[in-house]
Every structure is written in C-alpha cells, then in structure tokens.
Amino acid sequence: MTCSGSDSGGADMPLLVVDTLRAYYRTSGATVRAVDGVTFSVEAGQSLGVAGESGCGKSTLALSLMRLLKGGEVVAGSINLDGLSLLEMSAKDFNRVRWEKLAFVPQAAMDGLDPVYSIGDQIVEAILAHRKMSKADAWKRAETLLQQVDINPARARDYPHQLSGGMRQRAMIAMALALDPQMIIADEPTTALDVITQAQVLKLLRRIQRELGIAIIFISHDLSTLAQACDRVMIMYAGKVVEMADAAALFAEPVHPYTRALLLSFPDIDRKMPTRALRGAPPDLSQAFAGCRFSPRCPEATEQCLQEEPQMMTVSPGHEVSCHLQRQAP
Amino acid sequence: MNEPGPILRVDDVYKWFPIKSQGFRNREAHFVHSVDGVSLEIQLGETIGIVGESGSGKTTLARLIMRLEDPTKGKIFFNDTDITKLNGRQMKPLRRKMQMIFQDPYGALDPRKTVYALLTEPLQVHKLLTERGARLQRVQECLALVELPATEAFLNRVPDELSGGERQRVGIARALVLDPELVVADEPVSMLDASVKAGVADLLVSLKERIGLTYVFITHELALAYQLCDRIAVMYLGRIVEIGSAEVVVRSPLHEYSRLLMDAIPPPHPDPEWGTSIPERGELPFFLEPPAGCRFHPRCPAAQAICETDDPSLVEVGDGHFVACHFGSTKGTQR
Amino acid sequence: MQAATTTINLRRRGRVAAWWRVMRQRPSAFFGVVVIAVFVITAVFAPWVAPYPPNDRSGTPFESPSRAHLLGTNDIGEDVLSDLIYASRVSILVGVVAAAFITIAGLLIGILAGYFRGALDEVLMRVTDVIIALPRLPLMLVMAAYLGAGTGTIIFVIAVVGWPSLARQVRSQVLSVRESTFVEAARATGAGSGRIMVRSILPAIAGIVIANGVMEIMFAILTEAGLSFLGLGDPTHQSWGVMLYFAQAQGAFLRGAWWWIFPPGVCIALFCLACNFIGTSINDLFGLRLGRR
After folding, report:
1. CA–CA min distance B100, chain C (Å)
2. How many domains in chain A?
3. What is each CA distance from A129 to A95, A113, A118, A156, in whole angstroms?
4. Which residues in C lie closer than 8 A to residue B107 (C-beta atoms)?
5. CA quadruple B219, B222, B225, B230: dihedral sign
6. Are B198 and A200 a contacting pair at CB < 8 A?
7. By CB neighbour count within 10 A (0-12 exposed, 13-18 middle, 19+ buried), where does C135 fall?
8. B133: which chain C residues are within 8 Å (Cβ-Cβ)?
C-alpha cells in the first residue's frame, strides 16, 4: 500500500507552502547561500522526506521554517502554514504558532534533553508554556503522550540518563506532540540510533502521521529511511531542490543524475554489487555559480548545464526535476 | 604439511567493567558484562565482520584484540603468542603488526599535527625507515593507496583543513604505514556522510584485494558487513549469537536476533512489507548481569520454557555456521 | 614508487602570520607587546638609558621634578628615574624567574598526576590541596621570615605558593586530553607513555600553559611588590616594590612627594596590564587554531 501525494481528498490548499525561500549566512567577507530558492508544498497529513548530503541546506531549511535560524537570515521567499504567513508575523504571534501548529524535533534531540529534570517534567514544561492548565492535568497529558510513543507512562519520572537513546528520541517526539500540532519537522531523527531502534522510530512516525493526521517533514541523509517513512521525497543539493516526487516514483525511476548517483551509493542487502561512490565534493556555497550546481560533478553535463541554471519542470504527474536534460511533460 | 595457525585466536574472553557502588549501602560490586564469553578464530587474509548494536560489546572486543584493554578472563593469541601476558615493552613489536582504524574521523587525528606528521608518527615510534627520504616515500605510497594527493600542500594540512572523508582516509593510511598483518576497523564509516561513506567503503574493499590484509570490521550496519566481509559474527549482550559466512548469515539467519537485525534494515526503495516484524517496544536492555537462560529470551518471538532457564552455547548447524539457540538447527527459512 | 619530487618543504607556514593576524585584530595585545618591549629594552640597556648611575646622590632630597631630575629625587637625593630604571631589572627578573619555576613545576606535576593517575595522582594532589588550602600571604610571610629577606627568598616563596594552582589546571586538561581518540590511536601504534606525554598531550595543553605563564609573571610581580612593600625585599637591589617601601618608610606620603610614589606604582600596573593583554590574546590565538570549522 503506497500513499500517493494527494489522496487525502478534501484539502484544497496544501497545509504548508514554501515559495522561493532563500536563507543566507553572511559573514565578514562571504555570503553562504545555504538555501537558495526552494519551493515545495506539503499537504495536511502527508509526510515529506528531505534528503541530501551534509551542507545541502536541509537543516537550514528546517531552522528557517521554525524561525530558529541563528547567524543567518531568510532573505527572500515566503512560508505559508494553513494560510498564515510565517515570515511576516511578529515574533509574539509566531510563538503561538511554534509548537502549537508546527513542532520541531531537532538534530541529536536525544542529547538535547535537560539532564536535571525528569522527562515527564520536561513535557509538562512544554505544555504549560503554551496552555493554561493545572500541573496535574498537564502531567496526565504527558503520560498519555508517552504512551502514544510506546514508552511506559510509569517512566515519566525517569531522568534522561536512565533511558536509552531510542527512548529519549521518542520522548522528544512526545514533546513535539504535546499541543496537537498540525505538522512536525524532524531533523535527522534516526541518525544516531541502532538499526532496530531506528526501525521502531520510523514506524512510530509513520503511525503518528496516519493515526493522528499530522504532517511530517522528515530530514535525513539516509535515503533508505525516507523510502520507508515518507509519501513524497525531495532531494536537495547545494541549497536547491533538484528532484521531488512520490516516494515510489522517485525510487523506482529517479530522473536527476544526482538522485541516481545517490541511490547507487547506498549498499543494498539484496544485491551484492559494490556501491558506486559519487566523485568530487559538494560546491562552496559562498561562491556564486551561474549554471546548474551539480554540473561540475555530473557525468552527463553539457555546456548549457555549466552556464545556465535549470528550472523545475514536471516530467510526470507529481514528479518534478530541475535538470536541462529532461523533457517537460506535455 | 603444517597449515599456518589462525592469525588471531580469542579464547573464551570476558571483560567486565565495575560500576561504582552507590553510597555506603550497596556494598556489592556490580559489573557491566561488556564481553561475556567470546571465542573466535580469524584466519590470515580473511575479513570478518562483527555486527551488533550499541551495548553488544563489539567495540570492547575490538579494543581487547588491540590490547587497549585487558580481559577480565580469557586469552587472546596473536600468531600463537598470548598477548594478554605481555607487558608494554614486549607488546611494542607486536603492535607493528596490528593496527586500528577508529570510528571518529574528527577525534582520531591529533588536531595539531600535519598530515605528514600524523603519518610518520608510527614510523618514529618504531624507529623505522631512518634513511633520508625513506619516510617521505612511504607516506606518499600510503597516501596513494587511499587515493589522496601526496602534494606538499596536502602534506602540510592539519585535520581542521580536511573533510570528514579525507580525515578517515588519512586514518586508514596511518593504519597502513607500518605494513601490518591485521587491521581492526571500528565503525570506520558510520560517522561519515551518506555519499562519502560509499567512497571509503569501496576503498576498504579495494585495499583488501590489493594488499591482502586480514580485517576485523566492526559495524552496526549489516548491509555494509555483507559487502565487505567473508564471515559475519553477530553479537548480542557480550556474546556471539551467530557466526558463519556472510552469505549464510544474511540470507538464512537462524538466530532470532539476526533475523530482527536483517528485518530492521530499510531497503533503498519503499517496501510496504518492511518493518512488520519489528516489535513496537523492546530494545537492548540495561542489564547489569545478564538474565538467566538465553540472554535474548525477553525479546524473542519464539521463546519457549527452556529458553528461560538454559543458556544455549554456540552449536554448529552447517558448514562453519554456528548459532547459539536451542532451536537453531530446526529452523531454516531462506530469505 | 618514485622517490619524492625535488624538495618538499614540510615546515608549516603561517605560525608567525597567525600571530600577526591576532595582533591586528586585538589592539590591546599590540599595546601589551609594545609596553613589555619598552620595559625590557630599558631594563637591559639601563646603564645607557638611566640619566644617573645607581646610588648616586646627585641632587638634594625630595626635589620635585625638574629638568635635571625628570622624576625628582628621593629622600637621600638619588634620581628617582634612574632608580626606577634599575629597579625594573629586579622586578622583571623576579617576575620571569618565579613564573618560570611555577610553570615548570606546575606543568611537570600536573602532567604526571593527570596522565598516570592512581597512587601518584593521589599523593601529588593531596600535596597540592594542602598548599592551596593555606592562606597565601601568611604562608609567604612565614616562609620569608624563616629564610630571611632578599630577592632569592621572594622568588622561592612566590614559586612555592604559585605552582599548585597551575598544576591543578594542567591536570584537569590532561585528564580530558588523555581520553581523546588520537591519544588512544598513538597508544595503539605502540607509543610509550613518555612519547605520548611529550608529543600528544603537551602540545594540546601548550596554549593554556603559555597563557598562564604570562599571567604568572603578572602575579609574581604584584606579589613581589607586595612583599617588598612589607619590608621583605632586598634594600641593596631595589625593585619597584622596594622603592615603594622606602617611599613609605621615609615619609614620602607625608611630604606629598608624589614623584616618588606614583612612578613605581604606575610601572607595576602598566607591566601587569600588558601581561594581561598578551595572556588573553595567546588564549585566543590557540583557541583560534583549534576552533576553526
């Protein structure tokens, strides 16, 4: 059973619309164009995977959506969540959006828990920061949340160091669920976990999406995890989106040369063929480049590729690519 | 007709780490049974993978082999010499023959040394290649082996100026400088980015073929072990629960834990069947002392009464294929 | 494989350049270096720089500054400026020598305790703890009283009181560095303890030790000034502190002879400030190199 992009009937407008977002880090001397013109949308209750190597801008994208960007700023573009323009609202207004509509599970979240408070206390703190309720009620809610993420509620009084890495990660997810958000952004939620624990967290996120109808943006450099947990997948390179499609379509028929190369570099237990590594290194994002950012490494690059930046085009329904070598679907 | 013995023999080795007792009340000493009875033989020229999750004891086993830790019990033989009985000075010449590649590319290199200094350090320690230019030549050879440039500019770089993949390659080159017989690689690619990983993994494969090293490859990624190794040993809570050729362990795993590991690996394409056999809860427990009976039985879907009382030992079920399970020989589903 | 191409220069360029960059970014460091340089040069070339030879009663007592005596004269008619210049030799010497002792002792003990741990660590740390626990000034006074006043005594006393704190700092740094993977990698290669301590651990803590060393000079000079002011200095070889001692003892304060009181104090303050600036910039310099990326 594969979920295609928009099978959730009623939604006229997507829940999240990001249009030509640009986020730069300006240091003395250089401007790093970490996110350079990213456009995508996420439907309510849908999960979108964002994949790419480190430095491709995916974390910066997440931080920009949460308005948590430090040392950099969003210089252009718009972010619309459920009709609200996130970039234009005041910080005070956004505080109400943050966590109530849009929650975040940051990278290495399991190390981000405060070691001197129990996990129950930390979830309660998150709840009470946004809602008025008695501490007892908040605690009950915390226990319910822990149960939802498959942690025995009796462990609410445990401290982070008493829990394993996987459990801490699930506690962070429970915290994100505290206020019934419409969307959760998870930045590398399974990266530091063992394979079995990783599988459990992936299944948990899938379940949250399906049972609670929460949209998820899932950021990872590990394409295999995205393949299992996401409806749609978006591949980023050097601050730009190079390909975006339903998961099934992307993995079955990858179009962009980078996507194809990336897929080949993952060991597949079902074929003992050696993986083929990508040659070269990601580009320096502080240097402007007129053409396609991937062209220096692309085995099929043409003159046009080196000089002219390609635009996103639709090659089949729901499948978009940014590459000169592709044909636009009629 | 005298066959050379195994290059490495681990003989019923235990490593228990003491946990400081809390306060005055708890006078009993508690231990973490990091490695709890492991025996292993590695032949010259083979590549063996030790696969397990965190807490399985695989890294501790690697450190015991390298004699960076001393076993609580048991012996380790390198080329028929019992290394657990040697002191520092006696160990030194042996250390030339076994080298280690570390997991963390960012911590494994002294940030204050240049690439040249890092690669010549082992030579300096063992006072080798003292003729003019000989060291430089060896460094250049090793850099070529790991596909890094041996230019003046590169040799003068410090780790800060290298990417993660480059640092790890330097780490590999450093392990090769002394021309060792055995290389222990502790999660050499797990901290690298996805595409860089593939390059370094390919390098390890090609090195294995070109130089004919004996490798012990520690990893939590079964797919990687399958790609790189001839034999695979699966560890759980300090013991080897299954060991056999890579093909057999991956294609027809007999221990429930091995199967769980295999099932948990997400394939690089959407698979609706994936993950159905993974239980929601249940993970590597924080045991101080292992449970009675089979140490996996609390999580085992096929556990029976006997599993709670009797601890199974490794039993041969096929050609070189051993499983530690009471029902190991009665299963046999192909994947 | 072919032998190396022509000559490969394996010296790492850029250390001096790095220093220069720090200097330019932090004008305080530049100021510090200039000030210290001026003091040191004046001290070294004292006989040529000072207008009058030492102990030369060239003027009348308590003369206020004039063209003949830019900083006036003291109670017996000696030129204050010349005294000041010759005194800088003693002060700076005491500062540098005491700091050197502290640094060497603290470094040695800190590394041995931190690297070997166990019984050695326990013993060394207990000794350290005892000295740290005792109040500094009374301890120094008691020792000095026992050993008799003099420059040597002062150096000794400052060193004894100063090394434990550095030893503690060094030890804690060593404790963290020795857990680094690269130290373990060195052990795996077969490096012995000595080699690891010198080649791997020492460079890691060098920055802190050097920065600390500069601060110790400052500490030593201030302490010397204090002890001398209390009368424990050597009257025949005046330091800035001894000058202040005499100024106070011979009534300069009562007479309002500010030209005798301020200059030594200002010199002490300036020198220490300069040390402080340099010490901070060294910290930054080493932090800079390690913290890149």
Report:
1. 7
2. 1
3. 10, 16, 17, 19
4. 180-182
5. positive
6. no
7. exposed
8. 3-4
Rounded to two decimals, the pTM is 0.82
pLDDT by residue, tens only, chain A of 330 residues = 334 444 444 456 899 999 999 999 888 778 888 898 999 999 999 999 999 887 788 889 999 998 888 888 888 999 999 888 888 888 888 888 888 899 999 877 777 788 889 999 999 998 898 888 899 999 999 999 999 898 888 888 988 888 888 888 899 999 999 989 999 999 998 887 888 888 989 999 999 999 999 999 999 988 889 999 999 999 999 899 999 999 999 999 999 999 988 888 777 777 666 667 777 777 878 787 888 888 888 888 888 888 888 888 888 888 999 988 877 766
Q: Subunits that touch chain B (at least 3 Cβ pairs < 8 angstroms)?
A: A, C
B137 contacts C3? CB cut-off 8 A: yes
Whether the CB of A275 is below 8 Å from some CB of chain B: the reply is: yes
Residue C4 lies in a domain: no
Residue A253's domain comprises: 16-45+56-92+233-322
Q: Please enumerate in sequence order all residues whose Cβ is within 8 A of that of A251, keeping only pairs 6 or more positions apart, or say none.
A: A223, A227, A233, A263, B268, B269, B270
The answer to the question of residue A164 being in a domain is no
Does any domain span residue C14? no
Q: Which residues of A touch B274 (CB under 8 A)?
A: 228
Residue C10 with chain B: CB contacts under 8 Å: 114, 116, 152, 155-156
- Among B164, B166, B205, B175, CA closest to B102: B175
C and A touching (3 or more beta-carbon pairs closer than 8 Å): no
Q: Give residue B57's Cα distance to chain centre.
A: 10
Give the closest of B92, B107, B137 to C4, CB-based: B137
Which residues in chain A are contacts of B284 at CB distance < 8 A?
Answer: 164, 194
**What is the domain extent for residue C168?**
24-291
CATH classification of the domain holding A293: 3.40.50.300
**Chain B residues touching A221 at Cβ < 8 A:** 193-194
| Cα gap A50→A58, rounded to integer Å | 7
- C186: contact with B, CB 8 A cutoff: yes
CA distance A3 to chain B (A): 10
A258 in any annotated domain: yes
Query: In three state form, how does the secondary structure of B227-296 look?
Result: HHCCEEEEEECCEEEEEEEHHHHHHCCCCHHHHHHHHHCCCCCCCCCCCCCCCCCCCCCCCCCCCCCCCC
Asked whether residue C11 is domain-assigned, the answer is no
Q: Name the residue of chain C whose CA is nearest to B68's CA.
A: C188
Q: Which residue of C has its CA nearest to B180?
A: C189
Give the Cα separation of C176 and C114 in Å (integer): 9
A154 domain residue, yes or no: no
* B170 in reach of chain C (CB within 8 A): no
Q: Cβ contact (<8 Å) for C13 and B156?
A: yes
- C293 interfaces chain B, CB cutoff of 8 Å: yes
Tokens 């993949």 label which residue? Answer: B165
B109 touching C (Cβ < 8 Å): yes
- Chain C hits for B116, CB-CB cut-off 8 Å, are 10
Which residues in chain A (211-250) have CB-CB distances under 8 A to chain B?
221-225, 227-228, 247-248
Three-class secondary structure of residue B180 per DSSP: coil
Query: Is position C200 within any domain?
Result: yes
